[in-house]
Amino acid sequence: MKFNCELKRIVDDSYDIEIGRRLQKTLAEDLKNGLVGKIKKFAVVTDSVVAELYGREIYEMLLDEGFKADLIVIPEGEKSKTREMKEFVEDTMLEKGYRRDCAVVAVGGGVVTDLAGFVAGTFGRGVPFVNYATTLLAAADASVGGKTAVDTPLATNLIGLFNQPKKVYLDIDTWKTLPKEQISSGLAETIKHGCLGDAELFEYLEKNVEKIFEGDTEACEYIAERNCSVKYKVVMKDERESGLREILNLGHTVGRAVETVSDYRLYHGEAVAIGMVAQARLGQKYGFISEENVKRVESLIARAGLPTAVPDYINKAELVKKLYTDKKVRDGKLRFVFQKEIGDVMQFGDNNYAKEIAEEEIAEIIAGM
Ligand code: GLY
Hints:
- By secondary structure, this protein is α/β, with parallel strands linked by helices.
- The protein is built from 13 helices and 10 strands.
- The protein is globular.
- The N and C termini lie far apart (62 Å).
């Protein structure tokens, strides 16, 4: 006997991204006005640095609104993006009586929004969550697009879910409390967006990158908006990465590998910057990008305070081996996304944006970096 269980799904996961300054009150108002339905219990997940800057304030605001809320703090840094830390957040929620009638409020950078979004996706088989992004990296990439994950000892982001938030708040006022290296790290993803899909953004950065470090309102708003626009043009067409979304991985094949091999001494954006240089140099060999444009990419990366070479302490052979942990690997073959000059990407067939690369080719590029 056979029973067909027909479960076709029509989903509407649309949500707003609000860009502005000091959006804490807006968040509390939105929750009061039913952003996540009738839910009145909120697990505010944040890290040990952001807690005192913004997390506690948001938590107290929710209490003032008459909600039940708890502040759950994880240690700052990429090393917190683990299955163990996910368990810690989940167990804390369970012990405090959270069941399915709750929502998660992630307040922080990419580590917090990736981890908290993943917790929300599996807690009680899924509860809503919102992201309050407090870093440029989270604003540029991590908090938007619905990828949530944790790292494993083997590599970054291997375990996770596509899980869209109910709303994302990009508070650019928070960038003023970021150390310079964190601004640089977020700029790497911003430069990536310019390289793969927005030549104007790239040229704007060439003229104005220093203004981002100065906290110039107009420049910060401009890049926040352009990042979302580039990213969403892609995500709206291919949320689950069946093809096009792979282009957002530009620079990430070498980037994610070098980040893991560095044992997270490199910030995510620093690692991506190295990966961006690697794909540009390899792309030049194939004629995908001119020497002049490779120089422009490298020079902008350097001006953003980012590395263009593999640090001395990295074992290059180990780095090449680590490339095989990339999610784009197919049938054991490395696959790379390449920018096409500046502001576009190479396409290698129907719905295929990644090219198979022999290990020796990328090993040679890495050897010269
Ligand atoms: N960070 C790459 C993506 O969101 O697809």
